[in-house]
Write a structure and sequence with these properties.
Helix content: 40-55%
Strand order of the largest sheet: 1-4-5-6-7-8-9
Number of strands: 9
Number of helices: 16
Largest sheet: 7 strands, parallel
Structural class: alpha/beta
């Protein structure tokens, strides 16, 4: 890749539209790549892969080598913060994460206030390795889960279809639920700052379950904690570049952008393009929003969908991405087709 003094990805976050939008994919280091599956088998468990710096760095770099994306996102998981808080976190094959549930105020009282960040030292080491291996023009993204989304797993002890356990707890025991959120806000700030110090150029806050909240709860449990994280990070690193992803937020995106102060917002494939252009992209960069299923489909459907994203958003500040993570069954040839289409 040609050396350049600037990072196109960071330029977009800084207010400069790019003629060819910079690209990456959520979950780009993952099971659709044979080289990832090979490393994953060698690592043993999922957390072993996250916490072995050389292996985490290797899978972070694999999609950059193969596709030349404009950004690498460090290979880790949103649940490393509960793990560092001393909670039991394990990943069952085919079932996803399992935690000890914090499903009543008495259990919440046992939650540590501060994470043991020495447990996350391997993540910071992986960031340093990746930064050293990346070309200067490629952006390195660090991330955390938004407090609401992380709390949904902590309360239920696992993912659920509509995160009803956390929603019920927030209604029944708002003070106890707020305690979980407060702990996650404080520790997420510290975690993100440590990622910046280890070499991350930009940060993303994943609020995967934001869309299940009604407007008053969305303001309280998604917007406000994210605002506090952005403010906490920028108190120490004033020009920190931060992307928010309140998945499924829809009509509440303008309020989220306004209140949180993020540099960009990631949108899912259900977002109304005219609404996003007028109410969101006029204020910040947007990232997205190809449907991961059309990437599996390929062919003319994929070409059409890529063209739609570009027609809708490329006249403004755009980071081309999917509307959520790439699926394991996605053919590599379709990712290459998408790249060719975007880059002309």
């Amino acid at each position: 890749m040609p050396q350049s003094a600037t990072k196109p990805f960071i330029d977009v976050l800084s207010g400069q539209r790019q003629a060819i939008p910079p690209m990456w994919m959520m979950r780009q280091a993952g099971r659709y790549l044979p080289e990832y599956r090979e490393v994953r088998a060698k690592a043993g468990g999922f957390l072993d892969l996250c916490f072995t710096p050389e292996l985490a760095a290797e899978v972070t770099l694999q999609p950059i080598r193969r596709f030349g994306f404009n950004a690498a996102i460090i290979f880790s998981d949103i649940l490393v913060i509960p793990y560092a808080l001393g909670r039991s976190v394990r990943f069952e094959v085919g079932e996803g994460p399992r935690l000890e549930p914090l499903d009543d105020p008495a259990k919440v009282a046992t939650l540590a206030a501060r994470a043991d960040f020495s447990k996350l030292a391997p993540v910071f080491e992986a960031l340093r390795i990746v930064r050293g291996a990346l070309a200067p023009e490629v952006t390195l993204i660090g991330f955390c889960g938004a407090p609401w989304t992380v709390a949904t797993y902590m309360v239920a002890g696992q993912g659920t279809p509509d995160q009803a356990p956390a929603r019920m707890m927030a209604y029944r025991h708002p003070e106890a639920f707020a305690q979980i959120i407060d702990v996650l806000v404080d520790n997420s700030v510290e975690y993100l700052l440590a990622q910046l110090a280890a070499g991350a150029d930009a940060l993303q806050i994943f609020d995967t379950w934001a869309g299940v909240l009604p407007p008053p709860e969305f303001a309280r449990w998604s917007i406000e904690p994210t605002r506090r994280i952005v403010e906490g990070v920028r108190a120490k690193v004033p020009d920190a570049k931060i992307i928010g992803f309140p998945r499924g937020a829809g009509a509440q995106l303008p309020a989220y952008v306004e209140a949180t102060g993020v540099n960009a917002v990631s949108i899912d494939w259900t977002a109304d393009p005219a609404f996003i252009r007028e109410r969101v992209q006029s204020k910040v960069a947007v990232q997205g929003n190809l449907d991961p299923l059309v990437l599996i489909t390929g062919g003319t459907a994929l070409d059409r969908a890529v063209d739609d994203v570009l027609a809708n958003f490329a006249k403004g500040r755009l980071i081309f991405n999917l509307g959520h993570g790439i699926q394991p069954e996605t053919p590599i040839a379709h990712v290459e087709q998408m790249l060719r289409r975007v880059r002309g």
